[in-house]
Amino acid sequence: MTDLIRLVAFQGQPGAYSDLACRAYFPGVATLPCPTFEDALAAVRDGEADRAMIPIENSLAGRVADVHHLMPKSGLHIVGEHFQRVNHQLLAPKGATLAGIRRARSHVQALGQCRGFLRAQGIEALVDADTAGSARQVAEKGDPSEAAIASSLCADLYGLEILKADIEDAKHNTTRMLILARVAEVPDIAEGPCITSFVFRVRSVPAALYKALGGFATNGINLTKLESYMVGGNFVAAQFYADAEGHVDDRAMRLALEELRFFSREVKVLGVYPANPFRQTGMADLGE
Question: Where along the sequence does the record put site: Essential for prephenate dehydratase activity (predicted)?
């Protein structure tokens, strides 16, 4: 299937960490930068791109805003997951020196993740809209006293030098990405561990959530993620996003989802896809 993929959409400018994730997961495949998450999803829905690579959560910053709202309405299916290690680089125009850097530009989260390094170096933090855009701006200005905090890919794309590599304060900084497609690609149940992702809204009665999730406990299904967010513009209606270990065709998962549907107004499966090996080999580095 990978050989049929020609273009992968992501949110951000060329060199963004999502761009880096696309290239890591789909080596040799062209990437399509999009201004917003909606644009990236629409590119796949409209047939402009074959896949979208969307960040859903970060080990330091938590969930990515808006994504939970957008995915259920996109008409797309989750077909895979990727865990992208985030290594921040201090990038500057050629000829600049670390001692001469007075300001560093980047996205507010990247700046926060490098706060200790910036303080130790006496570098002023300047907030920009995104990391790749900061790198482009630093390259265009050519000011040897101004740097950007961005990916190593940005150094190549914009002709910048890496003055200091891996400057993030937490060395476990990792972002979980989801891969979405127009058509579901449910793996065979015998192919290995899977994740089933779904959204649901419980009925507005006491203990509804407790009862709705009881089927997962009684059937031995592990929920690895459960988050709520408001829907409908009020503070009484909540929708939940969940990831569960298991295949939708497994008897235990079927029974758990049946019980969930009994106590819920709406249940929508967003995707059934292979569990990334990082769940077994890399979670220890995140403190799991």
Answer: 175
Stated as kind and residue range, the H or E segment containing 154 is helix 152-158
CA angle 210, 55, 157 (to 5 degrees): 170
Under 8 Å between Cβ of 201 and 242 = no
137 to each of 34, 134, 195, 200, how far by Cα in Å?
18, 5, 40, 42
3-class DSSP state of 220 = coil
Tell me the mean pLDDT in the region 104-111.
93
Output DSSP code: residue 191: G
For 238, phi then psi, to 5°, come to -125, 140
CATH numbers and ranges of domains, the chain: 2-86+173-181 (3.40.190.10), 89-164 (3.40.190.10), 189-281 (3.30.70.260)
Residue 256 contacts by C-beta under 8 Å, 6 or more apart in sequence? 215, 216, 218, 219, 221, 244
